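I would like you to sit down with the record closing this message with an eye to the fold:
=====
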Amino acid sequence: MLDKNGVEIRTGQVVKVTGAFFKNDNGLYFVDNSPGDPSWSGHDYCLKKVCRNGRLSSSARNICFWPIAVFTNDRTKNAQADAWNREHSEIEVVTLPDMSGVLGYFREKLEQTNSSIQRLIWNFGEKNEGVQREKTIAAHYENVIRFIEGKEF
């Protein structure tokens, strides 16, 4: 998917969402998962809030999906918000001067995946299907880290 300027949205990038129906949905996010990621089965983008200084947000409502998903207990408000977001909301890839928070997040995910790989190898052996799947996910996180560091993959 492309942002409003024609830039392809990828895992690890920082994006700015504007024009959303609920003001909490507007803001800076980093792309946690994209369609096609080996650890993601969704057809949308999973976004997590990030502060302007590059620090990850610790707010309670720090996750958003693109296209924006609306979840309320009022069917009318859901329809109204969905229609508004389709017409008015925009997403744009932006750069932050300090990407260390996002980089640390993906390094931690890589570390957790590598620990999972070790456990699976000990339990099931190197050729196990689960081990191979986790290795694919680890390679994906390594590529995302290289992308964020500016070493294009």
